[in-house]
Amino acid sequence: MTLLDLKGIETGYGKIPVLHSVDLRVDENEMVALIGPNGAGKTSLAKAAFGLLPAMRGSISFDGEDLTGATTARRIHLGMAMAPQVENTFPELTVDDNLLTSFSTLAPEDSAAAVENAYALFPRLAERRRQSARTLSGGERQMLAFACASGTKPRFLLLDEPTTGLAPTIVHSLVERIVEFKDGGASILWIIEENPLEVLPYVDRVYVLSNGTVKAETKAEDLLSEEALRTLFFGLEE
Ligand SMILES: Nc1ncnc2c1ncn2[C@@H]1O[C@H](COP(=O)(O)OP(=O)(O)O)[C@@H](O)[C@H]1O
Ligand SMILES: [Mg+2]
What we know:
By secondary structure, the chain is α/β, with parallel strands linked by helices. It has helices at about 40-50, 70-80, 95-100, 110-120, 125, 140-150, 170-185, 195-200, 225-235, and strands at about 1-15, 15-25, 30-35, 55-60, 65, 80-85, 155-160, 185-190, 205-210, 215-220. Helix 3 runs parallel beside helix 6 (about 140-150) and helix 6 (about 140-150) runs parallel beside helix 7.
């Protein structure tokens, strides 16, 4: 069953569109990757899907409900969540308070349990629970952003480059946590720019975005080699 469905989406900043007639869907319990070079429009697509950028044309629906003009709050109510690429934590709040703020829609006992669950998944965050998010490393901040977005158990999660710029061991453990979350029944749209081969083995389908347009949609298994990826990206540069 289709959960997120974008049809003919055009969006941008001011009057200038940066996405052109984009069609993309994510099915129930599916892991979909969105890959493409810097500036392709990946973050803009995520923002449009989450209601942070208005759709100039086209339609967006989630679980059959038309959300084209709906607020981000409505999307969260329906079970969507997002871990943004940047500005994804409150820098002056402690790790504890970042989690509690993200879980404020839960009942108090559920919120406390969600915080403890986040610390069980990420022991590094537990060690830093009283530190402000500003003092975390890049990897720890991505762990916190993912823990905040996933801790309310959304049905659908948008992840905007959670592993870009991180050390390989951190990438590995974060990827494991994300895959476990998907295996619990959620759907994920995962934006990847760096090291796609770390993530593609866990992905079902891939969209390739370039210059604001979907250039290809393919099964992840067709892209599982350096050569296949090189051919794909070489094609984009022409
Ligand atoms: N806040 C903004 N105001 C104006 N243009 C923007 C803004 N954010 C992004 N853009 C432009 O939109 C295009 C797509 O950017 P973005 O969606 O961030 O791409 P990606 O995430 O694939 O790197 C780029 O040309 C970028 O310069
Ligand atoms: Mg981006």
